[in-house]
Amino acid sequence: MLLCAYVSLPAHAKQRIYAAEQMMAMIINEALRRKQGIIYRRAHKQREKASWLRQSRNGSGRQPPLKSVSTVVRN
User: Fold this and answer.
1) Closest by alpha carbon to 17, among 7, 31, 27?
2) Out of 7, 19, 39, 55, which residue is the most buried by the measure of CB atoms under 10 Å away?
3) Domain for residue 3, yes or no?
4) Domain that holds residue 24
């Protein structure tokens, strides 16, 4: 039923629908990429923290970072 309504639309309306679908797909993909990136960076930060804790126990003298820096990158 919806397909029949879509077929009867004029061409410019179909182009607008297609453009809106493409825009939604782009937004969703960007959000997923950003989410995965933040998760990866958070895990990376934890590993880095663990490595300097180990080194400080070994007495290598490396100091921990003074404050956490947010690593969210905006394109």
Assistant:
1) 7
2) 55
3) no
4) 10-58
